[in-house]
Every structure is written in C-alpha cells, then in structure tokens.
C-alpha cells in the first residue's frame, strides 16, 4: 500500500488531546502504517510557532505559518501580528531549518453573518504581499468567498500554491490550474450532498491534485462527523481515484508526488 501525503491538518487542536491524551501516539502509528507526510497548518501567530515546534519533533511533519481570516478577525493589533508572522517566516534559509513549506492558511471566509470583510481583506492582502516578497507558496482558505478570493490572487500573479478543501466551481478550478495553482480535496468530496465538489475534482488534471484531511474536521464517509485524522484520507483518495478512473494506490502516489513538488520536499 502506497503511503499518503496529508497536505493539510491541524494536529495542535485540543480535540486530539481530549480523545487520545495527546496526538503523539496517534501520529506515531499513522507514520508507521499509512502516512508518508503531514503538513500541519497554522491559523494564528501562536499556533504558527506551535507547528514549527511540532515539525522539529517528527521527521515527516512540515509546517505552514499564517493568519486565517476567522482568527485574524479576533486580533486587536493586526499590524503587530503581521510583523511577528513576518519574523517567523524568516528567510529561505531559516525556513529550510524550520521546515516551513508555505504561508497559510490565509484567505477569506464569508460564512458567518458578522464577518468583518474589510479586516479580512487587509490581512489577506498583506500576507499575499509577504508570500510574493519571499517567493513562498500559499495555502488558501476560501469559504463562500470565491469571487473575492479569486480576484485577490489575480492581483498577485507571481504567487501560487494550493486552494485547500476546494469548494468552488469546476470552471474556477480550471482557471486556477491555468494560473499554476494546485487544488486540494478533503473528505467533503465523499459526501453525498456535495456533487459540485466531485465535478470540480474531475476538472483538475492529475498533476495538480492534492489530498488533505483538514483534521480534526471534515472526516470522510464513513466517518463523517467524527474526529478526523490522516489515516482516513485514504477514503478521500479512493473517491478521487474513482472520479479519475485510476486505482487508489496510483492516486495516493500521484498526490504525494504533487505535494512534494509544491512544497519543495523530498521524502
Ligand atoms: Zn484548515
């Protein structure tokens, strides 16, 4: 069985500690059995420091640092937080040492009614500029904000990366691929009520697909609603393989190689 690359998870989430005492035993068995590598994704300055520390403890765990639109909204001193993030992002040299493989997750989230869209746009734009200056890929969070997110990345044509847990149209997916982006699918692609996500997955060529869990969230069928972990990403791979008419092992291998290429990792 090919080992899978989980391109997006949050292993610092307290739900792992509650369920397992700590995520350590779980991670040890996952790396042992079915998982080649995991990118642990930061969402604010504090947990961005945390994912860098975790990446140092696990051979095949990598980190991204960034301010998520939802987390950013709660920060009072945004410019202070961005300066701290900039320091953590460092240089190509320190990033290689710290195993920081992307800036993220960053983007726009219009799901909640009380969203401060202006503040989100400011934080997103500042981080896109940072990525441009540093020549580092980004991990995009786009929830119910497809038009504005797409417009923002079009303003920075030199920045590419991955749209995580993709939920946009097949047409936008094709546009993203043309612009050099990767598109990542989570357990949502296995949900019966998400045919649009399957359509988008079919529109992405094999060499631009990534697989992720977004653990502890978005567990695939048959574990929908439960605590998610990287071992369950196999079900997402199975569904993507079915959509593209290849075997699950082939899909696992292809998406692992894609992730290595995007994040500049050699496993
Ligand atoms: Zn996430």
Describe the model.
- With 267 residues, the chain is an alpha/beta fold.
- The protein is 47% helix and 16% strand.
- It has one domain (4-263): TIM Barrel.
- The chain has twelve helices and eight strands.
- Helix 9 packs parallel to helix 10 (195-203) and helix 11 (233-244) crosses helix 12 (248-263).
- The radius of gyration is 17 Å and the shape is globular.
- The mean pLDDT is 96.
- Zinc ion (ZN) binds next to loops.
Keywords for this entry:
267 residues; TIM Barrel; globular
Order of helices and strands: EHHEHEHHHEHEHEHEHEHH
In the CATH hierarchy, the architecture is: Alpha-Beta Barrel
CATH class category label:
Alpha Beta
CATH topology: TIM Barrel
- What ligands can be seen in this structure? zinc ion
The radius of gyration is 17 Å
What structural class do helix, strand and pairing data support?
alpha/beta
**Unreliable residue stretches:** none
* Helical content (DSSP H or I, runs of 4+): 40-55%
Q: Summarize the main sheet.
A: 8 strands, parallel
Q: What best-fitting shape do the alpha-carbon axes yield?
A: globular
Strand order of the largest sheet: 1-2-3-4-5-6-7-8
Mean pLDDT: 96
- The counted number of beta strands is 8
Task: Give the secondary structure arrangement, pairings included.
Elements: E1 4-9, H1 14-20, H2 24-33, E2 35-41, H3 45-57, E3 61-65, H4 69-72, H5 78-89, H6 92-98, E4 100-109, H7 117-134, E5 138-143, H8 146-154, E6 161-163, H9 170-178, E7 182-185, H10 195-203, E8 209-211, H11 233-244, H12 248-263
Parallel strand pairs: 1-2, 2-3, 3-4, 4-5, 5-6, 6-7, 7-8
The site of zinc ion has 5 residues, from loops.
């Amino acid at each position: 069985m090919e080992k899978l690359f989980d391109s997006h998870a949050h292993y610092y989430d307290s739900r792992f500690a509650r369920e397992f005492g700590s995520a350590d035993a779980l991670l040890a068995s996952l790396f042992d059995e079915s998982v080649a590598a995991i990118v642990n994704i930061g969402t604010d300055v504090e947990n961005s420091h945390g994912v860098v520390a975790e990446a140092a403890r696990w051979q095949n765990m990598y980190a991204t640092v960034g301010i998520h639109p939802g987390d950013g909204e709660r920060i009072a001193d945004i410019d202070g937080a961005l300066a701290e993030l900039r320091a953590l992002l460092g240089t190509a040299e320190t990033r290689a040492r710290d195993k920081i493989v992307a800036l993220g997750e960053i983007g726009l989230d219009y799901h909640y009614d009380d969203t401060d869209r202006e503040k989100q746009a400011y934080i997103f734009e500042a981080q896109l500029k940072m990525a441009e200056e540093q020549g580092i890929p980004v991990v995009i969070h786009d929830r119910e904000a497809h038009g504005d997110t797409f417009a923002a990345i079009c303003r920075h044509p030199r920045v590419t990366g991955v749209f995580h847990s993709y939920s946009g149209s097949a047409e936008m997916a094709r546009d993203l691929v043309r612009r050099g982006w990767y598109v990542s699918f989570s357990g949502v692609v296995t949900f019966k009520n998400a045919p649009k996500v399957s359509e988008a997955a079919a529109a992405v060529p094999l060499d631009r697909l990534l697989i992720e869990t977004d653990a502890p969230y978005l567990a695939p069928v048959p574990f929908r609603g439960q605590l998610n972990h990287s071992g369950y990403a196999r079900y997402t791979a199975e569904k993507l393989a079915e959509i593209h008419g290849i075997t699950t092992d082939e899909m696992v291998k292809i998406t692992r190689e894609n992730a290595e290429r995007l994040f500049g990792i050699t496993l």
